[in-house]
Design goal:
Helix 2 crosses helix 3, helix 7 (105-162) runs parallel beside helix 9 (188-206) and helix 8 runs antiparallel to helix 9. The strands form three sheets. Strands 3, 4, 5, 6, 9, 10, 11 and 12 form an eight-stranded antiparallel sheet that branches. The protein has helices at residues 4-8, 20-35, 37-44, 50-62, 70-81, 94-103, 105-162, 166-184, 188-206, 274-287; strands spanning 13-14, 17-18, 209-213, 222-225, 235-244, 249-250, 252-255, 262-265, 267-272, 294-298, 306-307, 315-316. With 319 residues, it is of the alpha+beta class.
């Protein structure tokens, strides 16, 4: 309701409409009527009862020490009837929706910004993934169509040039066939395996060494074993080392016939017939010096050593 200060203000007006004080007072009347809505609506529902309602309002304001003119009371009642000074929400529609979006543009802007960032990040990640996949595919294509064929051809030619025995040539041809087959089915892994085998084969072919029977003082030159399955038999072995032309000891993977385990060693024992074993033992016991200590020679271009003494095949790595 209006206070005494508002009531004491002069109720002036001009040609354009009621003064601000009168307008505020009329709004107060409407507000009072709205707070007593049940009474006001009941009185207004009956024709000719405006005077009763106006009188009630006058007494209400007078009880608060406020003098309100008939014109103000009439304006307030009329405004209530016309729903003036009452907020009527805009009915739902496209315009209202747009207005609501505009009011909440800050929130929507933040959400939209986050969505845009996520979308940009997703697009960037997808493009990066596609680029990586395309580069990997191109690298694989180049390897299969250019790099591996070129390297395999070069390794095959180098190995063929060093092969000087029939078994060495057959081995080179077999590896070249394996490599070509792998390339034809686009199997890069198998092609790389064949390439590595060709390169190792070429290295084996150029290698030259001697299998020398160990004859140093306090070291055994030969041993024999009694097999568990036949205690009446003996297996004879000569202990050897592979010595390169520069005197360097070489190491090789040797599979032991006693336990089927393969070890890379620089010293192992080769099984030989008893007559070979006895000949070496006699050579060494004659004067304490092993005169003929070359068991085999590995020439360039060959896969296996060429033995100068009879051997039985098989070897052991521990004794």
């Amino acid at each position: 309701m209006a206070d005494s200060t508002a009531a004491a203000a002069p109720a002036t007006s001009d040609a354009k409409g009621p003064a601000l004080d009168e307008l505020m007072l009329a709004m107060d009347v409407v507000d009072t009527l709205r707070h007593q809505e049940d009474v006001a609506l009941r009185e207004l529902a009956q024709d000719g009862r405006d005077d009763v309602l106006k009188e009630r309002l006058r007494r209400l304001y007078e009880s608060q020490g406020l003098a309100v003119s008939d014109r103000i009371l009439d304006e307030g009642i009329k405004a209530l009837k016309e729903s003036r000074f009452t907020y009527e929400p805009t009915p739902p529609g496209f315009s209202r929706t747009l207005a609501g979006l505009w009011v909440r543009r800050g929130t929507f802007g933040k959400v939209l910004g986050v969505l845009v960032l996520l979308f940009v990040a997703w697009v960037g990640w997808s493009v990066w993934q596609q680029t990586v996949a395309e580069r990997a595919a191109e690298t694989a294509r180049i390897e299969l169509t250019e790099t591996l064929p070129r390297r395999i051809a070069a390794a095959g030619q180098a190995a063929s040039a060093e092969a000087r025995t029939d078994d060495a040539r057959r081995r080179v041809e077999q590896l070249q066939t394996d490599a070509a087959s792998a390339l034809s089915r686009s199997d890069a892994a198998a092609a790389r395996v064949a390439l590595g085998a060709l390169e190792r084969l070429r290295g084996d072919l150029v290698q030259v060494y001697e299998l020398r029977i160990v004859s140093r003082p306090s070291e055994q030159s030969g041993i024999y074993r009694i097999p568990d399955v036949n205690t009446g038999a003996r297996n004879y072995y000569l202990i050897v080392e592979a010595v390169a032309s520069d005197g360097k000891l070489l190491s090789f993977p040797i599979r032991s016939e006693e336990n089927n385990q393969t070890k890379t060693v620089s010293k192992w024992a080769v099984r030989v017939p008893q007559r070979t074993y006895d000949a070496v033992r006699g050579d060494k016991t004659d004067d304490g010096i092993l005169q003929n200590d070359i068991l085999a020679t590995k020439p360039r271009g060959a896969l296996e050593p060429v033995y100068s003494m009879a051997v039985s095949g098989g070897a052991i790595t521990e004794w």
